[in-house]
């Protein structure tokens, strides 16, 4: 099997298959639980492909549940964007969109239940004191002076916390587990904290909000989730996840399985850091084509299939690793190689005048939309006396192996004739501004017999070319691990050349491009018509990826 079609190992998929085949459990329910405090990024795509993918594969369902327990940081715009991204990737959640806040009433009843059982108490320690009492990895914690309050007092205080009688931070509800537990997560974790904040779903109904730990597993249980698949940082929380399930009257018992999160080099995947890039206007919003967000990748020209393919290629394991971003580039490149129609586009135009071509003569060449795809039909390339070629395809004093245009040298204009450069016109500053060339009319569809002409370059008619803006994107960061060093601000590693804008000229077909249409600009790369520009009356193409495949090459070398 080729590298390309191989999907990497996925231990969770294997485990689920074994379970289903051996008759443990009839069907699976997974969930994807984003917090609506930012846009989804490529790391989330891995989690989405895993959770929705497993449900798809094994005939189960995957729930979309917003993990909305931090009202101050969450917003409706993020909820909308997250739903759009998941659907764009091609996944469907089972049932309605769910919110952890749907369960606030039940969670509160369960908190009261723990209090009645003597397994939770209201504490007056503030955050700093709590940290002091908690102990360290090597030292046990010590009990809070409020740990032995009576059930009645605890119930009364909890009720008053809920009613908003206390200030933020004045009290909290904690589980009463074990202040000496080797796993610090079990040293009386906080279940509820006071927040006088308005919540995007529940409005002003609550003055207290449950912690992540007190919410997550219980929400899973309430929804009948069978496998709660999360990233490795929750491994140490698993005993707590299980403690709640064991100590509450939950309707069923989901199981937590952890996997390694996706890390990509030259990229940051932390919503907090991505938000900083947005808030400081370093990028043009969450969906800037340089952002590793799903919406950014979409605007850049990635297809849903390429992102799903990439997630398949990287596999699912427990060992943390860093994935080479060229693998992501490879995934989109191989998709577009097969599926993007071709077009010619001159990035930095240099004028060519065909001296032996009549001024009003036009010849139209019909060429395939894609060399291997008859279904893409033919496109028309009109040729006229004056053309544009790329400045990079001409050199006045070329080195030996330069097979493009140079004074006295010949080159083939792609799909048409061979031309020879007879004269170079310069402006007063000495810059080359125009080339006078002659056409060899005996070279259409055949090579001359008396000489070899190796080079083929692309071109566009001056009369029919379409002016477009091309945005060439490069990595947002210059170094492989921008956030590795704790002492250096990751913003110091920004790549100053992550965006280059060219005023280019494309072949006539580009005038008809609609938002998100993708093309291979021959000899250059893959480009996508910007989602928004057309509405603003501009014709803008974003470079998705260049033609050169560094990753595939490295694989071959092995
Ligand atoms: P961030 O660290 O970027 O803020 P998060 O984990 O806080 O991300 P959530 O909204 O809580 O963001 O994530 C939703 C789901 O996506 C979680 O199950 C989480 O484990 C998973 N996830 C987040 N980042 C990655 C990643 N880099 N690779 C794989 N899964 C991820
Ligand atoms: Mg999180």
UniProtKB/TrEMBL annotation:
Residues 28-322 form the Glutamyl/glutaminyl-tRNA synthetase class Ib catalytic domain. It holds the Pfam family tRNA-synt_1c_C2. CDD domains: GlnRS_core. ATP binds at residues 35-37, 231, 261-262. It is found in: Cytoplasm. It is an enzyme of class 6 (ligase). Its main location: cytoplasm. Keywords: Aminoacyl-tRNA synthetase, ATP-binding, Cytoplasm, Ligase, Nucleotide-binding, Protein biosynthesis. GO terms for molecular function: ligase activity. Residues 456-530 form the tRNA synthetases class I (E and Q) anti-codon binding domain. It comes from the Bacteria. L-glutamine binds at residues 67, 212. A motif ('KMSKS' region) lies at residues 268-272. Its EC number is 6.1.1.18. Residues 340-440 form the Glutamyl/glutaminyl-tRNA synthetase class Ib anti-codon binding domain. Monomer. HAMAP family: Gln_tRNA_synth. Belongs to the class-I aminoacyl-tRNA synthetase family. This is Glutamine--tRNA ligase. The gene is glnS.
